[in-house]
């Protein structure tokens, strides 16, 4: 499905968003592993979370989706007594998490994903699990793979420079191991706020992680307790509506914005503020406003907010001067190569773009609408659509890829004044 974006006037709107998929990805695993019932409210209903629920249930865990926004978990009754298969679809996060969860069982568990997921790196988590005594069968340390536990060794090290998801995956299962677990990080860990997020959620279920420098210690043979929790709105989803206000002008109000979020992307508004937007807080409302003032290009370290780089790149197309996004090397390993592919599509529009291994630089200028590829990447579709709010003739190809994280994205855009239509 292709969508043409209809240029918009200045915006004047309020937005209420579903819960963070980053939190939900972790919560569903924690809920599955808990020894008591867990109720999760305001869960985003998207492809990744649905894949996670199906995959965990295939392993004998008991997650029930009640109304699309509430998930209830019940304690697992017994471990697996025979091998099973789990499909991870396009989800890199779930693929890494379920690899660790699979290591808790002493039967072969076969993991496989979509063609795109099967090409993404898994070597970090596989190497760590092998060090823990888990058998891994994989041709090139990607999916498909067969994992046979249990964990026999309780200490390992892992390179943190590729993905923080490997670290989070091991921490999530650590309390379920027979004895105390020690994890040492080598290299410079990326996106450390996601590790902090994992540790915070574990704490809410009664498990403490001791952190000393690059070493993490978790007591074994613990139970995650139950409870009822409401998932805060997603900062990355919020970024598109902040970006829309910056590009179109006017005012957008985000309701129930989580100002205390540990997620690095929750600080995206600082980037827009430095570029010239007026940002205000009113209780739990975030107000983003741009009147007549021009956007001015700046240089930003995006190492702790990687998933809003594409949003910022779209905004940068409308700024005076050059906007530089640095410390982004790990974006090459996402759903697409988010450095090269973003640069390619922006250049099609006429933007002046430069890039390297760990940076992307965009210089504002006159743009011309054209058809844009999404590379089977939901964030490519959502960020490029913002450009169409000001530039006539922008068509987003395969726009339905947004179902991975934000199925009603284009409907929500319409509520703030940015319309679109399906085209051939």
UniProtKB/TrEMBL annotation:
Pathway: Metabolic intermediate biosynthesis; chorismate biosynthesis; chorismate from D-erythrose 4-phosphate and phosphoenolpyruvate: step 6/7
Annotated EC: 2.5.1.19
Keywords: Amino-acid biosynthesis, Aromatic amino acid biosynthesis, Cytoplasm, Transferase
Active site: 307
Source domain of life: Bacteria
Domain Enolpyruvate transferase stretches: 8-413
Binding residues for 3-phosphoshikimate: 21, 26, 163-165, 191, 307, 334
This protein's record includes keyword Cell membrane: no
Signal peptide start-end: none
Localization of this protein: Cytoplasm
InterPro entries per record: Enolpyruvate_Tfrase_dom (IPR001986), Enolpyruvate_Tfrase_sf (IPR036968), EPSP_synthase (IPR006264), RNA3'P_cycl/enolpyr_Trfase_a/b (IPR013792)
Any one GO molecular-function label of the UniProt entry: 3-phosphoshikimate 1-carboxyvinyltransferase activity
GO terms under biological process: amino acid biosynthetic process; aromatic amino acid family biosynthetic process; chorismate biosynthetic process
Main localisation: cytoplasm
Reaction it catalyzes: 3-phosphoshikimate + phosphoenolpyruvate = 5-O-(1-carboxyvinyl)-3-phosphoshikimate + phosphate
Residue numbers binding phosphoenolpyruvate: 21, 92, 120, 165, 338, 379, 404
Subunit structure: Monomer.
Classification via PANTHER family: AROM/DEHYDROQUINATE SYNTHASE, PENTAFUNCTIONAL AROM POLYPEPTIDE
Function: Catalyzes the transfer of the enolpyruvyl moiety of phosphoenolpyruvate (PEP) to the 5-hydroxyl of shikimate-3-phosphate (S3P) to produce enolpyruvyl shikimate-3-phosphate and inorganic phosphate.
Protein name: 3-phosphoshikimate 1-carboxyvinyltransferase
Gene from which the chain derives: aroA
């Amino acid at each position: 499905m292709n969508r043409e974006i209809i240029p918009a006037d200045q915006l004047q709107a309020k937005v209420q968003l579903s819960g963070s998929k980053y939190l939900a990805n972790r919560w569903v695993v924690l809920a599955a592993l808990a020894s008591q019932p867990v109720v999760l409210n305001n869960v985003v209903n998207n492809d990744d979370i649905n894949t996670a629920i199906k995959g965990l249930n295939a392993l004998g865990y008991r997650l029930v989706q009640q109304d699309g926004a509430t998930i209830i978990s019940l304690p697992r009754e017994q471990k697996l007594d025979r091998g099973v298969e789990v499909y991870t679809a396009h989800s890199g996060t779930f693929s890494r998490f379920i690899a660790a969860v699979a290591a808790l069982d002493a039967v072969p568990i076969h993991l496989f994903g979509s063609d795109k997921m099967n090409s993404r790196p898994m070597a970090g988590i596989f190497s760590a699990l092998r060090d823990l005594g888990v058998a891994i069968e994989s041709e090139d340390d990607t999916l498909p793979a067969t994992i046979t536990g249990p964990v026999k060794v309780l200490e390992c090290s892992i390179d943190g420079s590729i993905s923080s998801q490997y670290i989070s995956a091991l921490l999530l299962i650590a309390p379920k191991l027979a004895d105390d677990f020690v994890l040492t990080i080598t290299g410079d860990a990326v996106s450390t706020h996601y590790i902090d997020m994992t540790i915070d959620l574990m704490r809410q279920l009664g498990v403490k992680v001791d952190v000393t420098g690059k070493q993490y210690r978790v007591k074994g043979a613990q139970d995650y307790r139950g409870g009822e929790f409401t998932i805060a709105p997603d900062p990355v989803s919020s970024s598109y509506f902040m970006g829309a206000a910056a590009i179109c002008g006017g005012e957008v109000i985000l309701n129930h914005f989580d100002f205390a979020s540990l997620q690095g992307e929750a600080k995206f508004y600082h980037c827009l503020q430095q570029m010239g937007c007026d940002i205000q807080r009113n209780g739990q409302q975030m107000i983003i406003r741009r009147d007549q003032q021009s956007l001015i290009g700046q240089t930003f370290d995006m190492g702790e907010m990687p998933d809003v780089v594409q949003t910022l790149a779209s905004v940068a197309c409308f700024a005076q001067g050059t906007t530089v996004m640095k410390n982004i090397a790990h974006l090459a390993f996402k759903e697409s190569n988010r450095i090269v592919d973003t640069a390619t599509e922006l250049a099609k529009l006429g933007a002046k773009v430069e890039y390297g291994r760990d940076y992307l630089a965009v210089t504002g200028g006159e743009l011309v609408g054209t058809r844009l590829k999404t590379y089977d990447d939901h964030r490519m579709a959502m960020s490029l659509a913002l450009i169409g709010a000001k530039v006539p003739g922008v068509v987003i190809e395969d726009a339905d890829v947004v179902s991975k994280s934000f199925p009603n994205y284009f409907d929500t855009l319409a509520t703030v004044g940015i319309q679109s239509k399906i085209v051939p």
